[in-house]
Amino acid sequence: MFPCCHRGDMTLLRNGSYRSWLRRQLVKSQGGKCCYCKRPFTKKGPTRPTFEHKKARMDGGSDDVNNLAVACFHCNQHRGLQKNRARQKSAAIIST
After folding, report:
1. Are 87 and 32 within 8 A, CB to CB?
2. Which of 33, 64, 71, 88 is most exposed, with the fewest beta carbons within 10 Å of its own?
3. pLDDT per residue over 36-68, tens digit each?
4. Which residues contact 68 (CB under 8 A, 6 or more apart)?
5. Rounded CA separation 53/13 (Å)
6. Contact call for residues 78 and 96 (beta carbons, < 8 A)
7. Closest-CA residue to 70 (of 48, 90, 44)
8. pTM of the full predicted structure?
């Protein structure tokens, strides 16, 4: 997909220029729409594009380009809350 970006090195995502370039490339590859709700992205607000890890970093996912997509800010936040609730629920079950 992006041959120069397969390092999976988190330091690359910390580089602002690279991060902006990669976000634009992912937005183009997804047709300018969120990977979840399919709404078109906007420059500001809840439908602005944000990086989404297909396999969350807290679950062992990486910053490799093959593990990245773009989701609108709203969907990305909602997914994070869902994952955190599920994690807390399973921890409560294990501890009882």
Report:
1. no
2. 88
3. 999 999 999 999 999 999 988 888 888 899 999
4. 22, 26, 51, 52, 53, 54
5. 12
6. no
7. 48
8. 0.72
37: left (phi over 0), alpha (psi -120 to 50) or beta: alpha
Q: Are 8 and 64 in contact (CB under 8 A)?
A: yes
Nearest Cα neighbor of 48 from 23, 21, 31 is 23
Token pair for 59: 């679950």
SS3 70: strand
The DSSP secondary structure of 14-65, one letter per residue, reads HSHHHHHHHHHHHHHHTTTB-TTT-PBP-SSSTTSEEEEESS-GGGT----G
